[in-house]
TrEMBL record:
Subunit: Homodimer.
Known cofactor(s): pyridoxal 5'-phosphate
InterPro entries from the UniProt entry: Aminotransferase_I/II_large, AspAT/PAT-like, NHTrfase_class1_PyrdxlP-BS, PyrdxlP-dep_Trfase, PyrdxlP-dep_Trfase_major, PyrdxlP-dep_Trfase_small
Highest taxon above the source species: Bacteria
Entry protein name: Aminotransferase
Family: Belongs to the class-I pyridoxal-phosphate-dependent aminotransferase family.
One MF annotation (Gene Ontology) recorded for this entry: pyridoxal phosphate binding
UniProt EC number: 2.6.1.-
Pfam short name (any one): Aminotran_1_2
Catalytic activity, as annotated: L-aspartate + 2-oxoglutarate = oxaloacetate + L-glutamate
Start and end residues of each Aminotransferase class I/classII large domain: 31-392
Sorted UniProt keywords: Aminotransferase, Pyridoxal phosphate, Transferase
Entry keyword annotation includes Kinase: no
Amino acid sequence: MPFLSATLDRVKPSPTIAVSNMARELKAAGKDVIGLGAGEPDFDTPDNIKQAAKAAIDAGKTKYTAVDGIPELKEAICAKLKRDNGLEYTPAQVSVGTGGKQILYNALVATMNPGDEVIIPAPYWVSYPDMVLLAGGEPVIAEASIQTGFKLTADQLEAAITPKTKWFIFNSPSNPTGAGYTRAELKELTDVLMRHPHVWVMTDDMYEHLTYGDFEFCTPAQVEPGLYDRTLTCNGVSKAYAMTGWRIGYAAGPEKLIAAMRKIQSQSTSNPCSISQWAAVEALNGPQDFIAENNKVFQRRRDMVVEMLNAAEGISCPVPEGAFYVYPSVAGCIGKTSAGGVKIDNDETFAKALLEEKGVAVVFGAAFGLSPNFRVSYATSDDALKEACTRIRDFCATLT
Ligand SMILES: Cc1ncc(COP(=O)(O)O)c(C=O)c1O
């Protein structure tokens, strides 16, 4: 009898963590490595949020809480959804978990039966397919292309739907591409979903506040109120409030689904950290103006990175609407050989040779389901980005 669960055979270890580990090893060996793999803002959690956490500790808010969130946080989430998205939810329709990741996982575990399909547009956040597999469902990958700015078209969504489809996972702005759907583009998708009443929408709005220029964020239940009863709107404080380590994510949706998610959480993690929940209340109810300030920095970096990467031979980099990632194509480099003698036959060999020969760590596109590309996170200093892009340009210039 095998000791380990057969479920483990269905999933793979996180490729983004593997890249970070390799970069760390090279750094430890004394190599000058610039990491562009980080999935978190490089600025600190705002002070008012830290103070709220300290006050919570001093006030003894250090015990178990209600399973899926303290009432104060649920109220703050309802107010946020009304303020930012025009969506009406009651606290009973809200679930708070240990990060956006746990919220998505709870929802999948609560709903997957053998054979259930989940449509995931590629390029996708690395965890979606594996979470579906862990929950016992079948990921169905619908590949978007660089020609449509990495956005799924209505026809592609329609073609992916079968009688077994349970969820459509939607993520805008996206990790790894930064692509954000306009209201019109999203409406085309929601029109398709209106024709298939058995399909539910799991929208991951984690990068809602990180958008640039005149792009306006919108979320499925807002664009198509007809989908409200079968939409789970997921979000969190990790990215916009620089709170990745605090582990607070949340979702709003039909009460029955929220209750099922609560049941799973009650038998796994009990409740998200009490102190972090009070910090999140302050994040959502407190001043929001620092977000626009941070976005000015992110936008400046995005523009610099896109310009420098497009100047590199064989690389083509679209301008994304949001998040802190770009997802350039290396189609023009495939088939060439690096100065170190590595034949670049796919994006994985490109990223490996770039790391070994130039000390720049990026995540290869195959990890996100669309090749030949790589993901750059520009959530790092201007100087590091400039140096990394210069090295990428040099690397490409010496390919033969
Ligand atoms: C698209 C997307 N969704 C969800 C998450 C998970 O966020 P959290 O840190 O709140 O678990 C991430 C984190 O990288 C993400 O990129």
